[in-house]
TrEMBL record:
It holds the Pfam family NIL. The lineage of its organism: Bacteria, Bacillati, Bacillota, Clostridia, Eubacteriales. It comes from Desulfotomaculum nigrificans (strain DSM 14880 / VKM B-2319 / CO-1-SRB). This is Phosphonate-transporting ATPase. Residues 2-241 form the ABC transporter domain. One of its GO terms (molecular function) is ATP hydrolysis activity.
Length: 341
């Protein structure tokens, strides 16, 4: 649905050149929710602004719904933009218009007849749960309600894709959750492709199917959210994952293994239903090792449970290795964090 190839954007300013996007390629499939995460200055806004051509790329190709948009003239671009909905961190509502008037605005610009506008807007307000607020003004709404208006307005022209620019960053956690739930519902009901940029891993874990991590204008890691969360490769990705899942073992705990002599500290992760085998007791019974659980957690990534145990496995190097091999055979993801022989 969105296909980006070798996209670069260089800004020229008094201070010199800034390469905000550096040869970015990515593919957002139809019907998927795709998250792009990065720290401040990574290039997220530039990327999303290039996708609707608010910013002209320096080089590269962007296809939305099969149409190359980087080469369109103004007129064709205006038409193409109608099929690219966008919501913003600060909602960008028209304060002098009611909720109804805000949602109707893009339809009025498209020249849709009044009676059709009325039906469409009422349906959209129903969809976002604001049917009773049609006559209210933005100043009379909460942040979450304002974003619901933003979503309804973005959907007015039946877009092929919805771009979300830090759509929940100005909202409290409970409201963030309800807006993310709404976006997920809309994604499912309308089979709408959604691209979100964010600096919050929580947003990615709650609703995204795939994620790309952007740093200094480059995609440094990309994949299904479940894979990136359970096996982050790049240090920056690990930092993001650690903001919601504690995957680090404190240094002093690691050091304790050294004091005890031989052993390993192992991170054991599982996705979905936990293994049917009583793995920990099997380790102790059959591999002549002692096992101490240092840390355990269960999180949810979308609807899939993701569990993690950090265990201390004490015994001879050969026995510890056999124990680890056994865990791998059980289909668990294993990472040896500390090995002492
Ligand atoms: N109009 C501009 N002129 C010059 N440099 C720019 C311009 N817009 C962005 N940049 C630079 O491009 C880089 C990427 O900026 P961008 O706003 O895309 O990052 P971001 O990831 O969205 O950050 P934030 O989360 O803080 O908004 C930064 O170094 C920024 O200073």
């Amino acid at each position: 649905m969105i296909q980006i190839k070798e996209l670069s954007k260089i800004y020229h300013s008094g201070a010199g050149e800034v390469k905000a996007l550096d040869n970015i390629s990515l593919h957002v499939k139809k019907g998927e929710i795709y998250g792009i995460i990065g720290f401040s200055g990574a290039g997220k806004s530039t990327l999303i602004r290039c996708i609707n051509m608010l910013e002209k790329p320096t080089s590269g190709s962007i296809k939305v719904n099969g149409q190359e948009i980087t080469t369109l003239d103004e007129q064709a671009l205006r038409t193409a933009r109608k099929k690219i909905g966008m919501i913003f961190q600060h909602f960008n509502l028209l304060s002098s218009r009611t909720v109804f008037g805000n949602v109707a605005f893009p339809l009025e610009i498209s020249g849709v007849p009044k009676d059709q506008i009325k039906t469409k807007v009422n349906n959209l307000l129903e969809l976002v749960g604001l049917a009773d607020k049609a006559k209210a003004y933005p100043s009379q709404l909460s942040g979450g309600q304002k974003q619901r208006v933003g979503i309804a307005r973005a959907l007015a022209n039946d877009p092929a894709v919805l771009l979300c620019d830090e759509a929940t960053s100005a909202l409290d956690p409970a409201t963030t959750h309800s807006i993310l739930e709404l976006l997920k519902d809309i994604n499912r009901q309308l089979d709408l492709t959604i691209l979100m940029i964010t600096h919050e891993m929580k947003v990615i874990s709650e609703i995204c199917d795939s994620v790309a991590v952007i740093e200094k204008g480059k995609i440094i890691e990309e994949g299904l959210v479940i894979d990136v969360f359970t096996q982050p490769k790049h240090p920056t990705t690990r930092r993001f994952v650690q903001t919601i899942i504690n995957t680090d073992v404190p240094d002093n705990v690691l050091e304790r293994v050294l004091e005890k002599g031989q052993g390993q500290i192992v991170r054991v992760s599982f996705i979905g239903d936990s293994t049917a085998e009583p793995v920990i007791s099997t380790l102790v019974k059959h591999f002549n090792v002692d096992v101490n659980i240092l840390y355990g957690s269960i999180d949810q990534i979308q609807d899939t449970p993701f569990g993690m145990l950090i265990i201390e496995c004490l015994g001879s190097p050969a026995n510890c290795q056999k124990a680890v091999d056994y865990l791998v055979k059980q289909g668990l993801r294993i990472e040896v964090l500390k090995h002492v022989s």
